[in-house]
Design a protein that fits this description.
This protein is mainly alpha-helical. It has a single domain, classed as MetI-like fold. Helices cover about 80% and strands about 0% of the residues. The protein contains 10 helices and no strands. α2 crosses α5 and α6 runs antiparallel to α7. It is globular and about 70 Å long.
Length: about 250
């Protein structure tokens, strides 16, 4: 029992690991996940619009993208983007691995968000689009102004859930060899574990991840309950009966 506690809960190791994890590691984990979710939202909305197109040649590239990036393990995508692109001479971020980390996680996030947004947009009553078109709006304007905002609101819990996934998948970017000042939670913990052969730093990193994901999980649940409650209230709202017209 003493060996177990010393391996996973060594007070000295925890005391040395937490300060670096809570400053450099936590900051960079949130930075990678936040930039990735922003990229995922922008690209995901675009892909969702393409998936909803009535033209097969427009839908097909989006469908291929979504199927490929949802089908590949995240670690393969991170390796292909972060290690493969620079090796092939494609260096949009120069030699900075942080940019490739955000790009890789963002591309994965976009594939999942595309399906989330597609389902949210399809849940908007079709009469909304018809009414907007009858007012003279073009299809793209009606989608941008009327339908898409309502669709995004429908999927807010799923959007927050995807951010939680991005936070956890940011651990995979350790493969890219982040430098000092750019290291995320897992990278710092893994370096220390490799140097000391003690897993206390990994436990400390796990605690930091839980500090992020557990509150976000409760937020997702509250958002979901709130939106469900609003939907039920709207469904139960009585339809006004027109008063009889005297002849």
């Amino acid at each position: 029992m003493h060996l177990f506690l010393q391996t996973f809960f060594d007070p000295g190791e925890l005391a040395e690991a937490f300060p670096v994890l809570l400053t450099e590691g936590l900051r960079n984990t949130l930075l990678i996940a936040s930039l990735a979710i922003v990229m995922g939202v922008v690209l995901g909305v675009l892909l969702a619009m393409l998936l909803l197109s009535h033209r097969r040649w427009v839908r097909l590239p989006a469908r291929v993208y979504v199927d490929v990036f949802r089908g590949l393990p995240a670690i393969v995508t991170v390796s292909l983007v972060g290690l493969g692109l620079p090796a092939a001479g494609v260096r949009p971020f120069g030699r900075e691995p942080l940019g490739y980390a955000v790009l890789a996680i963002g591309l994965i996030s976009a594939a999942y968000l595309a399906e989330i947004f597609r389902s949210g947009i399809q849940a908007v009553p079709s009469g909304q689009l018809s009414a907007a078109r009858s007012l003279g709006m073009s299809y793209l304007t009606a989608m941008r102004v009327i339908v898409v905002p309502q669709g995004i609101r429908n999927v807010l819990p799923a959007l927050a859930g995807q951010f939680i996934i991005d936070v956890k998948e940011s651990a995979l970017v350790y493969l890219l060899g982040l430098g000092v000042g750019q290291r995320e939670l897992y990278f710092i913990a893994q370096e220390r574990q490799a140097a000391t052969y003690n897993s206390s730093a990994l436990v400390a990193a796990g605690v930091c991840y839980l500090m992020l994901t557990i509150p976000l999980t409760y937020l997702v649940n509250r958002l979901d309950l709130r939106l469900r409650g609003e939907t039920v209230r709207k469904a139960k709202k009585p339809t006004p009966v027109p008063s009889p017209v005297e002849v």
